[in-house]
Amino acid sequence: MAFRKRYLLSNEQVNSHGFWLVVKGIDLTDAKLNLPCFFNHRTWEVPLGHWENLELKGDELYAELVIEGANEAEKEYIRKIENGDLKGCSMGLDPLEWSDASEYIKQGQRISTLTKSVLFEVSITPLPSNKAAMSLKHKGSLITLTDEDNTFLPTLKTTHDMKEIAILLGLAETATDAQVRAKITELQLKATNGDAAVEFLKAEGSKRLVDDTSKKQFESLCATAAGAAVSFLALAAPATAEAVPGADGAEPLKPAVVKDIQLSKVVQAAKDDGGADAADPKKTFDYLQRHNVAELTRIKNSEPDNYAKLAADYAAGVRYNA
Description:
Layout: E1 3-10, E2 26-27, E3 36-39, E4 49-57, E5 60-67, H1 72-82, E6 88-99, E7 113-125, E8 135-138, E9 141-144, H2 159-168, H3 177-208, H4 212-224, H5 226-235, H6 263-272, H7 285-291, H8 293-302, H9 304-315
Parallel strand pairs: 2-7, 3-7, 6-8
Antiparallel strand pairs: 1-5, 3-4, 4-5, 6-7, 8-9
Helix pairs in contact: 3-4, 3-5, 4-5, 5-9, 6-9, 7-8, 8-9
């Protein structure tokens, strides 16, 4: 009775040469009729067996190895497989199309993606999942990727990808690499500042805000608008102590009286005042943070009182709905 063993022929992981292949793009038409098995792609030798029952499952391709075992050489291969000395397999493919399209690019990739190919043989190998031993045809000749002469592999070109990244970042498709990097840095800083505001709340909020309602409102605001949260926290900061010397200058310093500020009262005051400027909804914190960050930054730097009121309106639920 012939020896049979099922193998995983390929998946879509990036291999050691920096590329991957689309499994569904492998043409199996000829392979289903005749798919010989060799040892380490020695196609000049007599096949030691063949493959049957090719099965595509998602992004994985399986097949069953069949070795007759009619001679000592074949029996030796069977013994090595059963003993665990030959666990892996490696495909021989004729590449038809390579692609640099963004949907085919994966992390760590250096070579274009092989999107269409033809399977013509599968070899067993002593190196499990040894994708470096993959064999490809080039100009009609068989080239194993363990050879030094594998310069025919197309190096990945990223120009098109950078154009799409620029558009996703809200930049023009003609944006330079420096502009793309600058935009990414800006977004990273925004994310970092948001995290810093939350940490600031954990460290300072409990001692600067008096009641539980204030703390809950502040925490909610911190999650939605970190800049406004920091401003609110600043409103509740203790005043700086002032020195009050005695007649002879010997009296100890006395701190100025500090009145705790409750965020809930600030928010309520904003509600009582009618909230944001109803005549111009584009002056709300909500509108500015989404559509005019530059103006919001200017107000924060040059009009701190106005900025604090806008933030209070936002916490009170004022939104731009136009």
